[in-house]
Write a structure and sequence with these properties.
The complex is a heterodimer of chains A (about 150) and B (about 140). Chain A has about 150 residues and is mainly α. Chain A has one domain. In chain A, about 80% of the residues lie in helices and about 0% in strands. Chain B folds into 2 domains: about 1-30; about 40-140, Rhodanese-like domain (Oxidized Rhodanese, domain 1, 3-Layer(aba) Sandwich), CATH 3.40.250. Chain B is about 45% helix and about 15% strand. Chain B has a 5-stranded parallel beta sheet with strand order 1-5-4-2-3. Classes of the chains: A mainly alpha (about 150), B alpha/beta (about 140).
Amino acid sequence: MTSKTSNIVWRVIDLIVGGIFIYAGVIKVLDPVQFGLDIDNYKSLPWFVSVRLAFYLPWLEIFCGLAVIFRFLYRGGLSILTALIAVFIGATIAAKMRGLDITCGCFGHASEHWNFPQHMAIDLAILIALVALLFASTRRADVRST
Amino acid sequence: MKLRAVREGLLLIALACLPAIGEGIYFRDKISWQSPIPASELVTVDQARAWGDGAIWVDARPDEEFGRDHVPGAFLLNEDHWSELLPQFLPNWSPGKKVVVYCSAESCNAARDVAKRLRDEAQLKDVFVLQGGWEEWLKKK
């Protein structure tokens, strides 16, 4: 793959991953109460924390998604999104092991009827894409600095 | 390089606070900050019992738990079979009746979710969640 083609491929992945997080964030910004209830469903945090996170996390997703799309504060955005999705995967697995029937509400009504394997498959695909983007950006930076 | 990522991350974390605080202020009176269920939507076992025939009891637990035992006269209405159970429940409701939804215990979410769907989808008013759920009802039996 030539350098130009590979740049286009990474750019497309940037747009897809950034777009996914912006979409997920906007849906949750529109209904923070429901997102608070979704966080509360994990039974890991007290309500007063869940409800505050419900107001904060969607905006963090939107800002990081924009950072990835516009490549401004790019590595910071990628790092945060990677951490968020890793925590989310961990919380989902922990909830499953505790026998909780979770509706994550990550993508509004679209994700309401996803089962556990579907959730995991999508989350892992996003995690892999984010890690790949982080490696690619490090490599680009190394090439520039040499 | 790592330091730069940390700096950028911290900046994004700080930036996201601004609209979040704004949205929180906008929603400050529209959300219950202390409990997932606003106090006005909760009812105690004693209060619900005092309503007598004016209350309809809704059991939001899974079918098996309902089959084992339930509040006398309660209707089964859980999210597992929502589309089948809702049409069976609705003819029993009439305006002015209070709906009391319960699930297993204080920590379960099923009653809260069913109550929300009854308000949003079935447009019912006076829908309450039983504080402490089935566990509390058993204690006060």
